[in-house]
Amino acid sequence: MSKLRSFIEELPKCELHVHIEGTLEPKMKLQLAKRNKVELPYKNEKAVRDAYEFDDLSSFLTVYYEGMSVLLTEQDFFDLTYAYLKKAHSQNVLYTEMFFDPQAHTARGVSFDTVIRGIRRAQMQAEISFGIRSQLIMCFLRDWSAEFAMSTLLQSIPYKEWIIGVGLDSDERNNPPIKFVEVFKRAREEGYFLTMHCDVDQKDSVNNIWQTVKDIGVDRIDHGVNSLEDMKLCEEIKEQSLTLTVCPISNSFVSDGSKSEAILSMLENGMRVTVNSDDPAYFPGYMTENLICVQKDVQLGKRELVQLAENAFEGTWLPRSTKDRFIEDLKNYVTKY
Ligand code: ADE
Ligand code: ZN
Questions:
Q1: How far is residue 170's CA from residue 173's CA, in Å, rounded to a whole number?
Q2: 222 forms bridges with which residues in the sheet?
Q3: Is 279 in the pocket of ligand 1 (CB under 6 A)?
Q4: Are the C-beta atoms of 310 and 274 separated by less than 8 Å?
Q5: DSSP for 5-44, written as a single string
Q6: Nearest CA to ligand 1 atom 6
Q7: CA distances to 15, 153, 188, 291 from 279, in Å
């Protein structure tokens, strides 16, 4: 394993499923609470982590939204994003498309402008400091109304140059994709790429994935593991060349396991599956740890690991020529290794 471990560590990577608010590590949570004079009921990092008691999506989301109370200023969003990009760079992530949840901040009085300016400044600084490239995906919270999502979409228009696409996250239960059909139609008209969470093992997972690919018409699917329950759906996903952003360590916290077998089946079935971290401060493990998790679970070899990395670069929303340059870097790494 140790040779494969260093192969994974040094592999040029691309991350397509990470929530920037989900990278808020306990240490930074405590630092920001102190700086912003926000009272938290935890004395130290261990106490913060000990309070992370979740075993499904909705219990995780409660902890995730609580944690955001310390994010108040532009500098907070800068620090959060810069720390993630630095960590990602240390694991050889060359490019990432990151989610942010503006409604989770505007709903508690932090302006859209504050959030996006802090994130954007960190993206630019990290590119200068480390060479890591990144883009931003704005997620709507599906357990809030379609009207709130639409007004957030309209609010984003002056910042369109800083946002590559829109997504849908939060609690899937009784919040099917179709609830947001008008919002996503308008987002498409505004030139955004589209993706949606189809979380693992939800009540209506298969139906919701069908809606996502047929009624919404997305460019990518976040998670989407349950598509394997319906071969026709898998064929449709392949037909549309959709990328699936699967998050093994996250899966092991919110469902009955990492779903590494599903990742392997998708690879074998020619689906464009990728491995990602989701909320690495809560489901401990960044890109390298997630790849190692799958490698160990189903004994992936170098060929499959490279395929996963190539799938991610291919699944980005970058222009063809930029994708090709990243894939070239990947191929050079494999040749030299
Ligand atoms: N928001 C942050 N992480 C999420 C996840 N894994 N599923 C749905 N919404 C989320
Ligand atoms: Zn997610």
A1: 9
A2: 197, 245
A3: yes
A4: no
A5: HHHHHHS-EEE--BBGGGG--HHHHHHHHHHHT---S-SS
A6: 278
A7: 12, 23, 26, 15
Tokens of 190: 């505004």
pLDDT digits (tens, 9 = 90+) for 20-68: 999 999 999 999 999 999 999 999 999 999 999 898 999 999 999 999 9
How far, CA to CA in Å, does 94 sit from each of 85, 317, 329? 10, 14, 10
**What is this structure's pTM?**
0.98
- Evaluate: CB of 278 within 6 angstroms of ligand 1: yes
**Residue range 3-336 in CATH 3.20.20.140:** yes
Region for 132 from its dihedrals, namely left if φ exceeds 0, alpha if ψ lies in -120 to 50, beta otherwise:
beta
What is d(CA 224, CA 209) in angstroms, rounded to the nearest whole number? 7
Q: Is 19 annotated as a binding residue?
A: yes
Neighbouring CB atoms inside 10 A of 189's CB total: 8
